[in-house]
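Action item from last meeting closed. Structure (341 res):
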């Protein structure tokens, strides 16, 4: 058995299930990294295509192959990998994505220089056969913790984490959050360590119909909603189902009234503002102006109810002391009963 001292500093954990179309390109992108002190642990999860054959055809001593005799699913396969890994750092990779050549080198350098960071992700390029876009999640711990209230902002296939934190706090992926298991793990990780995303593209994420996020979109959203509820509750923001729906409406600029519900909407924004500033260390002015925009949108959606909506708007600080242009526009809309459509 390999000892801790002989283990490389990084293990790249690569679960594989029927990845034949893209697997070879993914492997090459890892094995051609500028950083060399790593092991690539590929676990074939009972593939029925040529995935295992492709893995066994690679002649590189850094590649280790494990197999599941039958398909056990992503979460069990990931946890099996975590139990096998002995290295200081663990990096994640998917079998249909492409790692940029400098990924491991830059993440290791950053983690070495910032021992308070236990989990580090980065930007990623989401691409299809016809288009691509660079996704730029928040980079600072406080901004990430705040953004996790709304969604997962640490791309699973970009992350590197310290194994010591996993072991010290017995952190593993939880099967109760299938298809959002990474999101849930990051929320728990944030209780024990600071998080970061680097402003560099670390992975080219191939978006296609066989992605889990495409095939299991509904199940993913159900699990993600559970994670959001847990994270908000941990921050002192435990909304019931009705308030959670109101939250979604406000932040998607799709408030659908009635006007009497503005009181509830304003109260929720006020509570969220306090938590975001005090617990998540968000910039008070920047957040104030963002909430001014959300409040204007909500009030504007029911401006056809008249002047009463305008008076509700200016009762809130982020209405009265916000962008004067929003105040004037809402006054015009309320006087003319012209709601935002």
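Sequence:
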């Amino acid at each position: 058995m390999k000892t801790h001292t002989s283990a490389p500093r990084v293990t790249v954990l690569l679960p594989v299930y029927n990845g034949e179309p893209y697997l070879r390109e993914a492997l090459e992108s890892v094995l051609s990294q500028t950083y060399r002190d790593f092991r690539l642990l590929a676990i074939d999860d009972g593939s029925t295509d040529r995935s295992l054959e492709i893995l066994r055809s690679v002649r590189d001593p850094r590649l280790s192959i494990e197999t599941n005799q039958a398909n056990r699913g992503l979460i069990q396969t990931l946890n099996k990998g975590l139990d096998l890994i002995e290295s200081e750092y663990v990096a994640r990779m998917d079998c249909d994505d492409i790692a940029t050549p400098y990924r491991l080198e830059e993440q290791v350098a950053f983690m070495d220089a910032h021992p308070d960071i236990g989990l580090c992700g980065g930007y990623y390029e989401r691409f299809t056969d016809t288009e691509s876009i660079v996704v730029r999640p928040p980079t600072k711990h406080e901004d990430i913790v705040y953004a996790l209230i709304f969604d997962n902002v640490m791309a699973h296939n970009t992350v590197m984490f310290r194994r010591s934190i996993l072991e010290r706090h017995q952190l593993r992926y939880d099967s109760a959050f299938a298809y959002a298991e990474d999101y849930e793990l990051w929320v728990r990780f944030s209780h024990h360590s600071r998080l970061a995303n680097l402003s560099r593209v670390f992975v080219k994420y191939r978006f296609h119909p066989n992605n889990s996020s495409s095939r299991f979109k509904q199940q993913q959203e159900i699990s993600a909603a559970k994670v959001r509820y847990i994270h908000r509750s941990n921050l002192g923001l435990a909304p019931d189902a009705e308030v959670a729906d109101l939250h979604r409406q406000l932040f998607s600029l799709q408030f659908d009234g009635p006007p009497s519900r503005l009181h509830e909407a304003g109260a929720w924004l006020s509570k969220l503002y306090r938590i975001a500033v005090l617990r998540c260390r968000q910039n008070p002015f920047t957040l104030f102006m963002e909430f001014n925009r959300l409040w204007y949108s909500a009030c504007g959606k029911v401006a056809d109810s008249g002047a009463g909506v305008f008076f509700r708007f200016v009762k809130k600080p982020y209405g009265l002391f916000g962008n004067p242009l929003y105040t004037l526009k809402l006054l015009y809309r309320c006087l003319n009963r012209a709601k935002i459509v």
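Note appended to the action item: DSSP finds 15 helices and nine strands in the chain.
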